[in-house]
Design goal:
Length: about 350
């Protein structure tokens, strides 16, 4: 800073604001009183303030903030993120090729017939079931068309109720894996419901467990979130005990991905074919349904248990030996044979 900048600037405003009277000799010799001293101090303070305001004092300077600190912070943040990413990769890195993983995975059952082993993650791949619909989407009912005393609306209502019956008997987890068919029983005609409950798990041919798809206790658990479904539903004029009506016939394949309870390495497919006939008629002004026939076959499955539960036959199992020629469980071209439960399969 130059010397001129340190000197006060005596402009007009400064001169006008400064009032100075030359004291007399007597006044100079006289000791200043309290009032004079106070005035002198005030004058000196005004002079100093004027001097600082004109550049003689300490000045504040605005300086642009340095970017060095911001750059250092950004670099530090990037390094922290890299360290975290490296740690996560190290924690989740693949183990040795021979190491076992605790993560659940669907594995193919070894030695499935017909080379139909499913790759990990998709228990239906490599089989016809891969192209089947998922669950209820595979249950397509015919268009309701009036026939034999039943209107379009009558048959539309009947189809809805029959579809619910099929779902409750073959897709409801409580029925299939829990062996508790309450939902199915609730859909039956009250008179047939009474007979169904009375004969459920009854020894002999009258056992109504055969109306349902139920795995025997301790033999299977669900290994996939869906069941693959494929089949047809038809309707035709019929008479039952002199009553005119319509027989609705449903013929479906239900393909379940199952495994031994707690055994992830035993996953396989179980193919169940079910053919159910329901007679629809009007009675006392209402649409009535009556299950007249139901048959099923399951493969691969053990036989000679006599309880109408499904006993899946896993590879390497000790079930009863087959008694007839091999069968294709996906074949729906013919009727269900009585001995199908005891036959080996060509594919699964």
């Amino acid at each position: 800073m130059s010397a001129d900048a340190d000197e006060p600037v005596f402009d007009d405003d400064f001169v006008k604001g400064a009032v100075f009277t030359e004291p007399s000799a007597r006044e100079r010799a006289r000791t200043p009183g309290r009032l004079q001293r106070r005035r002198a101090r005030r004058a000196e303070q005004r002079r100093r303030r004027a001097h600082r305001g004109l550049g003689g004092g300490r000045r504040r300077e605005y300086r642009e903030p340095s970017h060095r600190k911001a750059v250092v912070q950004v670099i530090a943040g990037v390094l922290v993120l890299l360290m975290i990413s490296t740690g996560l990769w190290w924690w989740n890195r693949p183990g040795d090729p021979g190491a076992l993983s605790d993560a659940p995975a669907v594995r193919p059952a070894p030695g499935l017939p017909g080379g139909g082993a499913a790759p990990r993650g998709d228990p239906f791949a490599g089989s016809p079931a891969a192209s089947y619909a998922d669950g209820e989407a595979g249950l397509q009912m015919p268009d309701p068309r009036a026939m034999n005393g039943l209107s379009d609306a009558d048959l539309a209502l009947a189809y809805v109720r029959i579809r619910k019956l099929i779902i409750a008997a073959n897709l409801e987890p409580a029925t299939v894996f829990g062996r508790a068919p309450d939902a199915f029983a609730a859909l039956l005609d009250p008179r047939q419901r009474r007979d169904f409950r009375r004969d459920l798990d009854r020894k002999g041919d009258r056992n109504t467990r055969s109306w349902l798809t139920s795995f025997a206790a301790g033999t299977a658990e669900q290994a996939a979130t869906t069941v693959k479904v494929h089949g047809t539903v038809t309707a035709a004029k019929a008479r039952d005990r002199g009553t005119a009506g319509v027989t609705v016939k449903a013929d479906h394949l239900f393909v379940y991905a199952i495994r031994r309870p707690g055994r992830l390495d035993s996953t396989m497919r179980e193919v169940v074919r079910r053919v159910t006939e329901v007679f629809v008629h009007r009675e006392d002004g209402a649409v009535k349904l009556w299950v007249t026939s139901t048959q099923n076959s399951a493969a691969p499955s053990g036989c000679d248990f006599g309880d109408d539960f499904i006993h899946p036959e896993y590879p390497g199992g000790s079930g009863a030996p087959p008694t007839a020629r091999p069968m294709d469980p996906y074949d729906q071209s013919g009727p269900i044979q009585a001995d199908q439960a005891c036959r080996t399969v060509t594919r699964i």
